[in-house]
Amino acid sequence: MTEPARRGFSRSREPAWLKWLLIGIVYLIVVVLIIVPLLQVFSIALSAGWNAFVQKALVDPDSLHAMWMTFVVSSISVTINIFFGMALAWAVARFQFPGRTLLISMVDLPFAISPVAVGLMFMLLFGRQGFFGSTLEEWGIEIVFSTPGLILATTFVTLPFIARELIPVMEAIGPDEELAAITLGASGWQMFWLVTIPNIRWALLYGVILCTARAMGEFGAVSVLSGKIAGSTETMPLRVDKLFHEHDEPGAFAVASILTLFALMTLIAKAALEHWVLASIKKPDANEL
Amino acid sequence: MSIRVEQVTKRFGAFTALDRLTVEAKGGELLALLGPSGSGKTTLLRIIAGLEHADEGVVRYEEEDVTGTHPRQRGVGFVFQHYALFRHMTVFDNIGFGMRIRKESKQVITQRVRELLHLVRLEGLENRFPAQLSGGQRQRVALARALAVQPKVLLLDEPFGALDAKVRQELRQWLRQLHDEVPITTIFVTHDQEEAFEVADRVVVMKSGRIEQVGSPQEVFDHPANPFVMDFLGHVNVFHGRVHDGKMVAGGIEFNAPENSANAPNATAYVRPHDVDLTRIPESTESIRVKILQINPAGAVARVRCYSEEFGITLQIDLSRDRYLALKPVAGEELFASPRHARIFSPKEDYSI
Question: Is the CATH code 1.10.3720.10 the one for domain A62-287?
Answer without folding.
Answer: yes
